[in-house]
Design goal:
Blueprint lengths: L2 E5 L2 E3 L5 E8 L8 E6 L5 E7 L7 E2 L7 E6 L4 E6 L8 E7 L12 E2 L3 E5 L2
Length: 122
């Protein structure tokens, strides 16, 4: 069965960095687009970044553009999110999602992981 397991979250001071990982199994990773979403307490799901199955088609929300970088390692079936210059407003539960096709469109997914908590505070 499809499994998505995130890790790498934690407590970070403003301006510091964290790198999230999403290890996947149960499907042919390179065939599908992937994305990251986050949900802050009391708020709805916000899509943060997406990437096509072939590693192109990168998309970022305006709120993270220039600070976050999405990448994938097909040999390791793993999706990454490098988060730099973290801000308190980046505090949220971050989850990865599997797209339904090799190309990615906003909000289109069929599986999402349980998430990893990121807290940015001094």
């Amino acid at each position: 069965q499809v499994q998505l397991v995130e890790s790498g979250g934690g407590l970070a001071q403003p301006g510091r960095s964290l790198k999230l990982s999403c290890v996947t199994s149960g499907f042919t990773f390179s065939d599908y687009s992937m994305s990251w979403a986050r949900q802050a307490p009391g708020k709805g799901l916000e899509w943060v970044s997406g990437i096509y199955g072939d590693g192109t088609g990168l998309w970022y929300a305006d709120s993270v553009k220039g600070r976050f970088t999405i990448s994938r390692d097909d040999a390791k079936n793993t999706l990454y999110l490098q988060m730099n210059s973290l801000k308190p407003e980046d505090t949220a539960l971050y989850s990865c999602a599997k797209g339904q096709f090799s190309t990615w469109s906003l909000g289109s997914y069929d599986y999402r992981g349980q998430g990893t908590q990121v807290t940015v505070a001094s």
